[in-house]
Amino acid sequence: MNIPFSKPIAFYPVFARCFGGINNAIYLQQLIYWSDEGKREDGYIYKAKWELEEETTLTGEQQDKCRKYFEDRGLLTTKLLKVDGAPTLYYKVNFKAIEHQLQGERNDGDR
Questions:
Q1: How many domains does the chain fold into?
Q2: In a domain, 79, yes or no
Q3: Beta-ladder partners of 76
Q4: CA distance linking residue 47 with residue 90, whole number of Å
Q5: pTM value?
Q6: Residue 37: its pLDDT value, please?
Q7: Strand, coil or helix: 76
Q8: Which residues lie closer than 8 Å to 27 by C-beta, 6 or more apart?
Q9: Where in the sequence is the domain holding 37, given as residue range(s)?
Q10: Are 67 and 89 in contact (CB under 8 A)?
Q11: pLDDT for 6
Q12: Which of 3, 19, 82, 97 is most solvent-facing, going by the fewest CB within 10 Å?
């Protein structure tokens, strides 16, 4: 069998339980992965929707729902910046808030 494998995506079930489902977990984990690759001093990264869809299979509409979920909870910040004259969406993961929520999930699981 000749299957074209690319880089696998790590999936942590605790993220799905803690952050509203598998789509949200995969979306967040992919943004966390790319956060180390950013070169901006303010911690924002750029990732095109088509790139995220290629990497995760999440459609643009699914990504928008995930993004709104995380923005509404203060776990993700976005901002529009101009790149080559075009507005471009940048992402910044709030690692402290995520860690805090995951810690709460772990503590709830102990009961």
A1: 1
A2: yes
A3: 93
A4: 7
A5: 0.85
A6: 82
A7: strand
A8: 52, 56, 58, 62, 63, 66, 67, 70
A9: 13-109
A10: no
A11: 65
A12: 3
Q: How far apart are CA 20 and CA 28, in angstroms?
A: 11
Is the pLDDT confidence value at 103 over 50?
Answer: yes
Residue 97 pLDDT exceeds 80: yes
CA distance 27 to 100: 19
Residue 84 lies in a domain: yes
The yes-or-no verdict on residue 64 having pLDDT over 50 is: yes
Could you tell me the CATH number of the domain that includes residue 44? 1.10.10.10
Does 7 map to a domain? no
Q: Whole-angstrom Cα distance, residue 61 to residue 50? A: 11
Q: Determine contact, residues 107/101, Cβ cutoff 8 Å.
A: no
Is the pLDDT score of 11 beyond 90?
no
Domain presence at residue 4: no
Closest CA to 72 of 23, 8, 20, 33: 20
